[in-house]
Amino acid sequence: MVIEKNDIIKKSEELLSFMKKRRTIRLFDKTNIPIEVIENCIAIAGTAPSGANLQPWTFVIIKDKETKKKIMQEAEKVEEEFYAHKISDEWRECLKPLNLDVRKPFLEQAPYLICIFTQIYGKDKQGKRINHRYPFESVGIATGFLISALHHLGIATLTYTPTPMDFLNKVLGRPENERPFLILVVGYPSSKYDLPHISKKDLNDILIKI
Ligand SMILES: Cc1cc2nc3c(=O)[nH]c(=O)nc-3n(C[C@H](O)[C@H](O)[C@H](O)COP(=O)(O)O)c2cc1C
User: Do 168 and 180 touch, CB atoms closer than 8 A?
Assistant: First the structure.
C-alpha cells in the first residue's frame, strides 16, 4: 500500500521523534513483563534479513535469578580485569560521560537478560558444516530489530558487552560454534536513573546525498 506523500512524511517525522526517545538504561524497575512479550520481540528479531537467509543467531532468555546472579558475578570479574589492565586512556575518556562502574547490579535487577549469540557456522540435515555468511552483520541487524520492537512497547534496554564474553558459553551451556554477541538487559526504566547527557550527530554530519 502506497501512503500519500504528506501522510508518509508526517508518519516518518512521528517515527523519528518516537525513536529519538530510546535511551540506554542502566537502572531498571523490578516490574515484571510477561515472557510472551519477550518471545514475540525475539520472533520479530528472527524476521531480520541475514546473509543467504542463514539466520545465524541464538537468543537465550534468562529470567532465573541464580543464572542472572552468576552472569553478574562473571561479568564483574571481567570488568575488574578490564578497568585494571586492559582499557586504554582514549577509551576511558570516551566512557567518562556515561558514569560506568565495574559493578553491574542491573544484571540481577532487570526482569530479563537476553544473551545473543552469533552462530559462526551451522549444520545441515546430514550434520555437514555450513559456514554462515556475514554472521556478525546479520546478528547486529536482528539485534536492532529487537531493540526497536521492545522500545515500541515502552520497554528499555541496555546493550551490554563485557570483554571478553566467552564465560557466557560456559554459564549457559552454549556450543562452540556460537560466539556471544551481547547481553541485552531488558526491563522498564527506573525513574531514579540519571540519563547521561550525551547527544547524537546532526543529520548533516551522517548523511551524504548524491
Ligand atoms: C555494541 C555496543 C556495545 C555497548 N556496550 C556497552 C557496555 O558494555 N556497557 C554500557 O553501559 N553500555 C554499552 N553500550 C551502550 C552505549 O554506551 C550507548 O548506546 C551510547 O552511550 C548511546 O546512548 P543511548 O543508547 O542512550 O543513545 C553499548 C552499545 C553498543 C551499540
Answer: yes
Output the ligand 1 site: residues, CB below 6 A: 23-24, 26, 98, 100, 158-161, 198
The residue nearest atom 23 of ligand 1, judged by CA position, is: 24
Instruction: Tell me which fold the domain 23-189 belongs to.
Output: NADH Oxidase (3.40.109)
Instruction: Write the burial class of residue 59 (CB in 10 Å: 0-12 exposed, 13-18 middle, 19+ buried).
Output: buried
> 196: cis peptide before it, omega within 30°?
no
The angle at the Cα of 144, spanning 141 to 149, to the nearest 5 degrees, equals 130
Report the alpha-carbon distance of residue 55 to residue 52 in Å, rounded: 8
Question: What's this model's pTM, rounded to 2 decimal places?
Answer: 0.96
Spans of all domains in the chain: 23-189
pLDDT per residue as tens digits for the range 1-11: 899 988 999 99
Whole-number Å distance between alpha carbons of 148 and 145 = 5
- Using one digit for the tens of pLDDT, what is the confidence trace for 159-182? 999 999 999 999 999 999 999 999
Ligand 1 center from residue 168 Cα (angstroms): 19
